């Protein structure tokens, strides 16, 4: 008889044990999701910084050839119509100017407000607003 009782006690997990395991799994899933989301935002910031560095190189090459900064980022891809640029040696970028990692255009201004003797080039970051910190921080070529 005692053998039969022991056998019944080992048939499965109790509801409490299952709830504890489920709670632990939910905590782990939440932690992993938060870490992945942070890494995704970090990667977007890194891509925006790399894009800006690449544009800076192309803009500097444009200036070397034409003795002036381009009127827009699109001028890196196609010679501006109506401008007399006998030394234009582009395209200075291989593909069309991409959007920033959040789907908005990079902002370019020559002469710059912050770099008055050259140009400002930046992305407004995740929030699309000037300023911000952390994931919402702007990616700038003057900091």
Structural class: mainly alpha
Number of helical segments with 4 or more residues: 2
**Proportion of residues in β-strands:** 5-15%
Second CATH tier, the architecture: 2-Layer Sandwich
Radius of gyration: 28 Å
What is the helical fraction, as a range of percent?
40-55%
Summarize the biggest pleated sheet. Answer: 3 strands, antiparallel
- Give the termini distance in whole angstroms: 80 Å
Output the CATH homologous superfamily: Glycoprotein, Type 4 Pilin
**Given this structure, which CATH class is correct?**
Alpha Beta
Give a verbal description of the structure.
The protein contains 2 helices and 3 strands; from the N terminus they run H-H-E-E-E. The chain is mainly alpha-helical and 143 residues long. The chain has a 3-stranded antiparallel beta sheet, with helices on one face.
């Amino acid at each position: 008889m005692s053998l039969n009782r022991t056998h019944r006690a080992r048939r499965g997990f109790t509801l409490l044990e299952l709830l504890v395991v489920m709670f632990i799994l939910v905590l782990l899933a939440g932690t992993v999701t938060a870490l992945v989301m942070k890494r995704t935002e970090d990667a977007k910031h890194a891509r925006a910084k790399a894009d800006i560095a690449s544009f800076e190189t192309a803009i500097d090459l444009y200036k070397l050839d034409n003795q002036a900064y381009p009127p827009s980022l699109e001028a890196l891809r196609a010679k501006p119509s109506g401008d007399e640029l006998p030394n234009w040696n582009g395209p200075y970028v291989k593909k069309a100017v991409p959007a920033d990692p959040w789907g908005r255009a990079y902002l370019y201004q020559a002469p710059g407000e912050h770099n008055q003797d050259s140009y400002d080039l930046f992305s407004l970051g995740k929030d699309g607003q000037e300023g911000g910190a952390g994931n919402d921080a702007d990616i700038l070529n003057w900091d």
